[in-house]
Structure formats: structure tokens, C-alpha cells
Amino acid sequence: MTDDEDSASDEDRGRDRRESGSDRPAAPAGHRHGPDADVGESASADDERDSPDTAADDRDTADTAGLEDDPGSPATGAAPGVPDPESVREDADDDVPEDVRKYDRFKKVDGSQYERVNDFLRERTYITAREWAIARLCADFRTETGVEMTKIGENLPELVPFMTDTYTPQAVNQARASFEEKVRKAGATFLYGAMSDFFTAEELDDVMYEATEVAKFLLEVEGVDLDVEEELAAEDRISSVMREVRAASDELRHDTTTCPECGHEVELD
Fold first, then answer.
1. What global pTM score does this model have?
2. Full residue range of the structural domain in which residue 135 is found
3. pLDDT (tens digit, 0 to 9) for every residue of the chain, 269 residues total?
4. Do residues 208 and 262 make contact, with C-beta atoms less than 8 angstroms apart?
């Protein structure tokens, strides 16, 4: 056999060994060769130990076990010792007297600011928004024994939309007394103007018309429905009264005068 033939035979035998695998040593049972061997062993060891994620999942499972059955958890109810907001509101509504809940005046100014209402009144009258509201309430919550000032003060924000603070009975009484004093002074001022011959009959009618319009507007804001015929009839009665006042003032000024303190009549020259 020549060298070429020997070389060809060796190549054929080597190729046969590679194809059959007899050239590679037999691996021990459970052992693998190459870089995959370490990966396989590491993976096997990790499978036997808990990974950090798995341990955390187990802890979360243990911590949340029975949470759905806990009545104090946020998912199922209020925390222990913390009142339910709905029950608080219901209790607050129960504390409000029934006649206060049914009180429906001042609804036309619901949402208005106190300053806005007060500016309107100060431009047209002598009273403030506080005095106006409390005077109205004192007239509406009057009983046989007197005015329910405690009820008015404690429920003032519920009764009047533009009032935001509660009042003591003393503060309610003070506001009512201030209103009465201003009405008396304004009445005396007006009547003096009507009786002093300062205004003509036409001017006095204009004054009365303006005053009547402001008064009607305030009544409408309070919730009073005024019929057109009733308004006209009221204006006619007021005009008639004012004519009588003017006629009486003429007689008083030219004949006699009466002292407002003692009622003594003084003859005028």
C-alpha cells in the first residue's frame, strides 16, 4: 500500500470515528461537557434554592393572607376608630331642627357673597346684610315666649346662604336691636322730611316710589311673591297715607305744635 493509500485510509477511519462518536470519551452519568455543563448545574442549584423574587412573593402572600376578611382594611371598610364621612353628615343633618331644614327664605341669594349683599343694602338703606337677615329670622322664629335667638344663632349658616358663621344669642339680640334703632331713626328722618314742607307733593311721591321699590325687592329676595295688583294697591294706599300726612303737617305747622316728649300743644304765632 502506498503512502497516499495509507493517508486516505486514515482519513476514512477518522471520518468514521467522528460520525460514530467513538472518538469522544463516554461522559459519566449525570455529567455534561462544555460550557453548558456549568449552566445546567447552576440552574439546577437555583431550582433547589428560593430566589429573592420567589421569597418576596411568598412574604407578600403571607402578609396579605386574610386581608379580604379584615374589616379594618381600606379595601373593605373604614379603619377602626375613624368615623364614616357619610354617617357624620347624616348625624349633622339629624342635629338640625326640622323647621330650620324647611326654612326656604333667601334662596334667591344662594351662593352670593356677604360683601355683595351688604354693599347693595348700604347703597339703598341704613341697614347691613347681617341686620337684615337676623331681623327677618327674628320675625319668623317668634314664639309665644319670645324669639328663639339660640336656634337662630346656632343655625344661621343653614338659614341664610350668605351668612357663614354661627352667632351667640347675645349677638343675635344685638343685631336685632341695631335694626330696630335704625328703622326708628330712618322713619323719624323720613317723616320729618315729609312734614317739613321741604318736598313738594310730586317730589314726595317720587321718594315714596323709590322707597317702595327697594322694599318690594327685599321682600321678593326673601321669597315673598307679590302680585301686580297687590303692588299697585299697596302703592295707592301709601300715596293716600302720605297725602294725609302732608295735610296734617300743614295744619300742625300753621296752627299748633305738639311736644313729642309730653304731648303739650304749643300755640304758634
1. 0.58
2. 93-184
3. 544 445 445 555 555 544 444 444 444 444 444 444 443 444 444 444 444 444 445 544 444 444 344 444 444 454 455 555 554 445 555 678 999 999 999 988 877 889 999 999 999 999 999 999 999 999 999 999 999 999 999 999 999 999 999 999 999 999 999 999 999 999 999 989 888 888 888 888 888 889 989 999 999 999 888 888 888 888 888 888 888 887 777 777 766 566 666 766 655 54
4. no
On whether the CB atoms of residues 133 and 163 are closer than 8 A, the answer is: yes
Per the domain annotation, does 229 fall within a domain?
yes
Q: Is residue 134 part of a domain?
A: yes
Count the domains in the chain. 2
Looking at the fold, whether 155 and 207 belong to one and the same domain comes out as no
Residues 146 and 210 occupy one common structural domain: no
User: In this structure, is residue 63 part of a structural domain?
Assistant: no
Q: Please tell me whether residues 200 and 132 are part of one structural domain.
A: no
Q: Confirm whether 79 is domain-assigned.
A: no
Indicate the residue among 160, 184, 208 that finishes a domain: 184
Residues 225 and 267 grouped into a single domain:
yes
Do 164 and 232 fall within a single domain?
no
Q: How far is CA 174 from CA 76, 100, 134, 135, in A?
A: 51, 21, 10, 10
